[in-house]
């Protein structure tokens, strides 16, 4: 094996170790980036709980897999009722 091949294998192994160590932080950053939208959609408590579980590396992935299999969220979206706009009668 040439020196160039050894250097490439060493660099690849070093890069993969660094990437593997950074994955939990990247997942937490993505989860917290979506915190505002999740809190608006699910409410404060539901949004915090959902984001908190998603930020934990393997637990968040397992939660998402179970939600896909079940077909519904653990923390459902809140239903904010909007009043329909009333139409005024046209003046004669």
Topology record:
Elements: H1 3-33, H2 35-42, H3 44-55, H4 57-70
Describe what is shown at a glance.
The protein has 92 residues and is mainly α. The protein contains four helices and no strands. Helix 1 runs antiparallel to helix 3 and helix 3 packs across helix 4.
Strand content: under 5%
Q: What is the global morphology?
A: elongated
- Structural class, please? mainly alpha
Ranges where pLDDT stays below 50 over 5 or more residues in a row are none
- The termini sit apart by 94 Å
Order of helices and strands: HHHH
Mean model confidence by pLDDT = 82
Total count of strands: 0
Range of helix content: over 70%
Radius of gyration: 23 Å
Sheet bearing the most strands, described?
A: none
Q: Helical element count? A: 4
């Amino acid at each position: 094996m040439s020196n160039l091949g050894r250097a490439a294998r060493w660099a690849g192994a070093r890069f993969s170790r660094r990437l593997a160590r950074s994955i939990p932080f990247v997942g937490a950053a993505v989860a917290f980036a979506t915190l505002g939208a999740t809190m608006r959609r699910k409410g404060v408590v539901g949004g915090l709980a959902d984001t908190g579980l998603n930020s934990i590396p393997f637990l968040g992935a397992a939660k998402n897999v179970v939600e896909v299999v079940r077909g519904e969220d653990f923390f459902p979206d809140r239903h904010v009722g909007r009043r329909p706009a009333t139409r005024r009668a046209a003046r004669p």
